[in-house]
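Worked Example 4.2. Consider the chain below.
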Amino acid sequence: MLPFVDLMIGAPFLQAPVHLEHSQFGYLGKTVYDKYRFSLGPRVGVHIPIAGPFLIHIAARYDIFGFFTVGGEAGVGVFLRP
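Applying the procedure from the previous section yields the following structure tokens:
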């Protein structure tokens, strides 16, 4: 296992579709609200080697700026050596 700590910088966006309906008039239409924001915060995690250069990535993060305050992530990756 390879533990790590780093600083994560991202540019997430949030999209919320809204459908409008009225009791007398029925369906009035829909609109979409978009919000873009940069995120910045520390991330702590571990890379778990599977076989050869392949690994499993598990991490937790805390966003100082952005939509999410605390989050987690997991994935599969490839460790590339120079």
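The chain has one domain: 2-78. The chain has a mean pLDDT of 89. Compare this with Example 4.1 before moving on.
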